[in-house]
């Protein structure tokens, strides 16, 4: 638009001619205004008028989020399945092989704190991304733990024959020679010390000279007279964590280092050491801990013999023996 200036001398209007600098600044102002208007139009379009491509990307994003939610749901199902496998492992397979279950601390060990996923914090949908990564890491950890545990179970199964041969499984004294039970396994009142203390085996009364049988395959660790109240005793190492002790023997028929088989006669009943009358003090240890021998020598009994043993146990005299 042209601009004019009044000249009082000539009483006329003269057109004002803009300088080059003025023309340049006018051009800049026009371009700036045009850019601002264009940017505003683009922003309004993006916010209120979705393009076909943006609509397509939004649909794809929703589909990806939906698939991730399904994946997390599947991983929770897999984790539950791994939990069932761990339960069967601890309460069936390991019980069968008389092994301790793996601790909860070991099975549920963490895979890292929140810092491990810090790089995901500033992403869109960070909560979903972190949850997905945590589930993946947890399943990976449990798979490694369970695989290691199953490797142990497979090894135990491979050595099943040796393990069964090492497990005390017969009576150390024949039922036909057994007169009665003395003290049974557990706490009892000591007849001399007058205190309650654990009795780590069972006492089997039988005539002097009655054969004593090795209850499993093994190696003789000790044989002969030892201090401590058992008199002449025999200690067998069966491997796989099993050991047995036979105390108060009248005669010891094996030597340290000798290999013995289940059912082999290793000694004879006596009354050596702190003992009131001829009997056998018999102990079973599993991984260094005493266990009730009754659970380990009734396997070769008939129903009638088992019933007789139960009756004898009910008539056991807890003050019969000192050891």
pLDDT under 50 segments (min length 5)?
Answer: none
Overall 3D form? rod-shaped
Structural class: alpha+beta
CATH class of the largest domain: Mainly Beta
CATH homology group of the largest domain: Glucose Permease (Domain IIA)
Q: What is the total tally of β strands?
A: 14
Looking at CATH, which topology of the largest domain would you report? Answer: Glucose Permease (Domain IIA)
- Overall pLDDT level: 79
Helical segment tally? 6
Q: What is the domain tally?
A: 3
N- to C-terminal separation?
A: 124 Å
Over the alpha carbons, how many angstroms does the gyration radius reach? 44 Å
The appropriate CATH architecture of the largest domain is Distorted Sandwich
């Amino acid at each position: 638009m042209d601009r004019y200036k009044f000249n009082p001398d000539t009483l006329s209007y003269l057109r004002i001619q803009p300088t080059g600098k003025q023309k340049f600044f006018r051009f800049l102002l026009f371009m700036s205004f045009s850019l601002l208007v264009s940017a505003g139009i683009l922003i309004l379009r993006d916010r209120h008028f979705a393009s076909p491509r943006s609509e397509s990307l939004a649909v794809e994003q929703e589909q990806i989020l939906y698939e991730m939610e399904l994946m997390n749901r599947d991983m929770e199902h897999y984790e539950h399945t791994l939990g069932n496998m761990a339960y069967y492992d601890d309460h069936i397979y390991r019980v069968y092989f008389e092994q301790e279950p793996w601790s909860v601390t070991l099975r549920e060990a963490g895979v890292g704190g929140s810092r491990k996923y810090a790089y995901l914090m500033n992403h869109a949908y960070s909560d979903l991304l972190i949850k997905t990564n945590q589930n993946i890491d947890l399943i990976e950890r449990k798979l490694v733990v369970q695989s290691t545990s199953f490797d142990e179970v497979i090894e135990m199964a491979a050595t099943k024959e040796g393990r069964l041969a090492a497990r005390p499984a017969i009576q150390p004294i024949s039922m036909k020679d057994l007169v009665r039970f003395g003290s049974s396994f557990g706490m009892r009142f000591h007849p001399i010390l007058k205190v309650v203390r654990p009795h780590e085996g069972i006492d089997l009364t039988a005539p002097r000279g009655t054969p004593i049988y090795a209850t499993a395959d093994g190696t003789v660790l000790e044989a002969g007279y030892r201090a401590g109240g058992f008199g002449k005793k025999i200690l067998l190492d069966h491997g796989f964590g099993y050991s047995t002790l036979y105390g108060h023997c009248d005669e010891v028929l094996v030597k340290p280092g000798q290999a013995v088989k289940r059912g082999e006669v290793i000694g004879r009943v006596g009354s050596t050491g702190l003992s009131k009358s001829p009997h056998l003090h018999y102990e079973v240890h599993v991984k260094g801990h005493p266990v009730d021998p009754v659970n380990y020598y009734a396997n070769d009994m008939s129903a009638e013999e088992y019933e007789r043993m139960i009756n004898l146990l009910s008539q056991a005299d807890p003050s019969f023996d000192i050891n």
